[in-house]
Amino acid sequence: MVTVIRLLAISLIALGLSAHAPALAQSAITDEAVAPSGVVLGCAASTAREMGYKVVVDSTHGQVTADKNLPLSHLGPDPTEYTRKNELAITTKHSASGGTTLTIIPKSIAVTNTRRGYTDVAQPSTPDVIADADTLIARCRSLAPNTSLPQ
């Protein structure tokens, strides 16, 4: 019995897990906007740029990925940790009411550098990235739909 517990503990440590690790489930923030998805997607991308994020837009799928490297003071105790970043995964979809559903998943990621190369390790979302997601939702939810062009 003791051998089995030791093997389980060793395998958890090898995987980078522990029994006391916080839950890393990233909760999505979802809201409804009145404007069409292209307008909401543009708002999300420009707002993320204003907040200091590097932005990659995939307008075909209605997605924006924004990431911001954090200062060295945010590094954790792991000696292999190279950098830490906040990431916003933004998705827009047409809703049944004619508007757009805006979904944002705030993430915090530690990038480690070992002999195997760089690896992204999920961390609990920081209050900063959650506040950035809330700010982005607040700015883009109340956009007026563009009625001057035919839909």
**Helical element count?**
3
Detail the poorly predicted runs. 1-23
**Content of β-strand:** 35-45%
- Distance between termini? 68 Å
Helix content: 25-40%
Number of domains: 1
What would you call the shape? elongated
Order of H and E elements:
HEHEEEEEH
Radius of gyration: 19 Å
**CATH architecture name:** 2-Layer Sandwich
Number of E-type strands: 6
CATH topology term = Alpha-D-Glucose-1,6-Bisphosphate, Chain A, domain 4
Structural class: alpha+beta
CATH class value: Alpha Beta
User: What's the story with the biggest beta sheet?
Assistant: 6 strands, antiparallel
Determine the mean pLDDT: 77
Describe the 3D structure:
Strands 1, 2, 3, 4, 5 and 6 form a six-stranded antiparallel β-sheet that branches. The protein has three helices and six strands, in the order αβαβββββα. It is elongated, with a radius of gyration of 19 Å. The chain has helices spanning 2-15, 37-50, 127-141; strands spanning 29-33, 54-58, 63-69, 81-94, 100-114, 117-123. It is an alpha+beta fold.
